[in-house]
Every structure is written in structure tokens, then in C-alpha cells.
Structure prediction request, 60 residues.
Amino acid sequence: MSTKGEPMPSNNSRYTPEIRQRTVNYILESGKLATSVAEEMGIDTNTVCKCVREYRRSNQ
Prediction:
């Protein structure tokens, strides 16, 4: 995945909803750990884990 830290210009959220969704999809499709994907993409591990957690809550 080639999206490395695409920041959102003016919002509290540093990453767009699209980037967050693509990150979660990548984790689910690849079977990789969130920590590995975070490192690979240059995104804070806590941010990636939060994205996955929010996705799972909203899709139960």
C-alpha cells in the first residue's frame, strides 16, 4: 500500500476517513498485524489500532 501518512489539511483528524478505511481494509485483507502495517505506513501504532477498533465496533 503506497499511502504513507497522507495528512488531512484542516481538521482534528490527521488522516482522512478514506485513508483510515484503506488502512483497515489492508489489515483485514493481508492478515498482517496492525502494528506491522502501522510501521510499514509510517503511522502511529495507536492510531492504526484505534481505526481497527472503531471499524469493528461499527460493523458488529
Summary: Residues 17-58 form one domain. Confidence is low (pLDDT under 50) at residues 7-11. The chain has one domain: 17-58.
